[in-house]
Every structure is written in structure tokens, then in C-alpha cells.
Amino acid sequence: xxxxxxxxxxxxxxxxxxxxxxxxxxxxxxxxxxxxxxxxxxxxxxxxxxxxxxxxxxxxxxxxxxxxxxxxxxxxxxxxxxxxxxxxxxxxxxxxxxxxxxxxxxxxxxxxxxxxxxxxxxxxxxxxxxxxxxxxxxxxxxxxxxxxxxxxxxxxxxxxxxxxxxxxxxxxxxxxxxxxxxxxxxxxxxxxx
Length: 193
What we know:
Elements: H1 4-16, H2 20-32, H3 34-89, H4 105-113, H5 116-130, H6 137-164, H7 166-171, H8 173-190
Helix pairs in contact: 1-5, 1-6, 2-3, 2-6, 3-4, 3-5, 3-6, 3-8, 5-6
């Protein structure tokens, strides 16, 4: 039996908690406004779709090998998150400033391939909720799209939040950048806890 409520709770909690996607989306929207952060978020959606497709196709195999690749994914993800934290903290562009180069589509897409949170999200959703109940190609395709849309929706919400409060953040740029950088450091450390 498919437990829709449990599945949706898991998906939304995973998608809307702080992570590399959400923090980078918020940072871009604070610095450049929501409109100029959309390409990055569309890149996140595209990357999510690709990763979800791969995880759907190879979920059973990946799940059996997860203990062997888990540490490599954690290390790569943590290093990338620390790099992002450094970039956010050292950001020279003032909040709300409309000049400067925003992070684009390709950056958002590539982020998904080194983001262990979405691999764990995909594999857990597939192995715990979907594969025990559904096996058809249509069901797998539908759940792949649903997981990608829910997962990427978190980054859009965080970008809207950053854009809505950009005037407040503009007055406190250094503190906001520090908090976001520390949250990314926390995300990297939490991978090993």
C-alpha cells in the first residue's frame, strides 16, 4: 500500500530544509533579485530531473552499492558546500545591487550532480515509498517528475523569500552572508553526523 501522506511529508521536508540549492537560491535572489535568479533555479530543476531519472533507473543497483559510494559522495558534496560557503561569505556584491554576474543555469544544473542531499532524497523516496508498490514505466516516470518538481520547488521558495526581504538583507549584508555561509558549513558537517 502506498502511503501518500508519509511520502509527501518526506518530500516537502527534504525539499524545504536548508541545503546547498536553497541557500544558493536565496543568496542569488538577495544579491540580484528574483528575476535574475530564475535561470539558476531552472538549472536546479533541470539537474534535479536528470538526477531523479538516473536514480529511478538505477535505484535498486545504487541502493545495494550505497555503502561503498556514500563516503565519496559525502566528501565531494561537503567540499563543494564548503566552497559555496566561502563564495557566499566573501561575496563582494552588495545585497540588492543589480550589477554583477549572477550564477546561471549551468551552475544550478551542475550543483545537482555533487549535491548528496538529492541523491539521498531520490534513493530514499524510491526504495521506501515507490518501488515496493509501483513498477510500471508510467508510474516511474510520473514519480520521477513529481520528485524533481517538489525537490526544485524549495529553491524557488527560498529565492522568493530572499527577494522579498532583500532591503532588510541589504542593511545587514555581512551578517546575512556570514549566516548563510555558516549554514552551508553546517550542511557540509551534517553529512558526517
